[in-house]
Amino acid sequence: MKHINEAVSGVSGYFPKNNPEIGTPFNLKEDASVPLLFTPITIGNVTFKNRIFAAPMCQYSSDNGHATDWHVVHIGSMAVRGIGAICMEATAVVPEGRISPEDAGIWTDSQMEPLKRIVNFAHAHGTKIGVQLAHAGRKASTYATWVQVHGHHHTASKEENGWPDEVFGPSSIAWSENFGEPKELTKDELVKIEDAFLASIRRCQEIGCTLTSSNFIGAHGYLLHSFVSPLSNTRSDEFGGQSLENRLRWPLQLIARPEQENGQWKQFGIEQSKIYAAEMHKLGVDLVHVSTGGNWSGQKVATGPGFQVPFAEEIKKSNPKLFVGTVGLITDAKIAESYLQEGKADVIFLARALLRNPHWPLEAAEQLGVRVKAANQYERTFYRM
């Protein structure tokens, strides 16, 4: 009998094959129950091995939009530790759509090869992967978080590799006094942005991303989010103003190719978000990752463990056939499992918890009393059960 360190097939390079895949239960007792966190889920035509997803996390470490070895290590460290899916950081579809000068990009073909290397590595370890296609809108041309001086202006100048004169939004309304005033996008410019998103989708598909076609950032005050809110969109054409239908029109047009007071919308809240989610679902969007805040500088967000979960729950209740992901300082495995068991969400997105501890999925399995596969190279350190 031959004993061979079998290789993964269908990928570039040699990687030892994990059987079963990393992050999946195995060697279970007959009567053992499997936590929902570690059960597969099929969304659209894609099946994920578990329900622990890595949320996009800006790294401010790209070289003119090109991923670097930092990204290989950063993403790779999660891929080999049992994550069901990874959504890579906000990746700009045009240069002026970056949040910071060091943001990731996919506006040109030369940016494909570095990303392809990362995608190949994730696939070799059984992890689905995609990028979050992005345009920062009026919050573009800002500093990396560790460069920004608290209390000072946020806009990077040309001398600081920024593009302060090429910042755009739905209307000429600055996010705060520390941001520059954006230019209002013309209809022709909106079409060009749509074209850039479509070209970026094609690049993602070509490099093998699992999550592509509608994996857009629509939150945190960036371009799509700023279109749907009357705080940031006061246009007088069919893409803005008091009409919710108008404010949703361009984001929905892109996806396809009610805090109301005295008869006027004062903000974009949960009631309008339910409508937005329903309209996206009609267009074939399978999963929404629910997050809030970031579009108004005067907003005070009460943060704490699971602080975004109630919003995800409301979206799920109003759109039961839509898959919903939740996020927001989720760190405890048992609490994460309870959100799934109670039907508040279908998948759990983790961000800072994974930055602190890439082993979170494997340790969560231990806490929930189930044995899951660790990478061949690491399994000697995990099997204490």
Automatic annotation (TrEMBL):
<feature type="domain" description="NADH:flavin oxidoreductase/NADH oxidase N-terminal">
    <location>
        <begin position="37"/>
        <end position="368"/>
    </location>
</feature>
<dbReference type="InterPro" id="IPR013785">
    <property type="entry name" value="Aldolase_TIM"/>
</dbReference>
<keyword id="KW-0560">Oxidoreductase</keyword>
<keyword id="KW-0288">FMN</keyword>
<dbReference type="GO" id="GO:0003959">
    <property type="term" value="F:NADPH dehydrogenase activity"/>
</dbReference>
<keyword id="KW-0521">NADP</keyword>
<dbReference type="GO" id="GO:0050661">
    <property type="term" value="F:NADP binding"/>
</dbReference>
<keyword id="KW-0285">Flavoprotein</keyword>
<dbReference type="InterPro" id="IPR001155">
    <property type="entry name" value="OxRdtase_FMN_N"/>
</dbReference>
<dbReference type="Pfam" id="PF00724">
    <property type="entry name" value="Oxidored_FMN"/>
</dbReference>
<protein>
    <submittedName>
        <fullName>NADH:flavin oxidoreductase</fullName>
    </submittedName>
</protein>
<dbReference type="InterPro" id="IPR044152">
    <property type="entry name" value="YqjM-like"/>
</dbReference>
<dbReference type="GO" id="GO:0010181">
    <property type="term" value="F:FMN binding"/>
</dbReference>
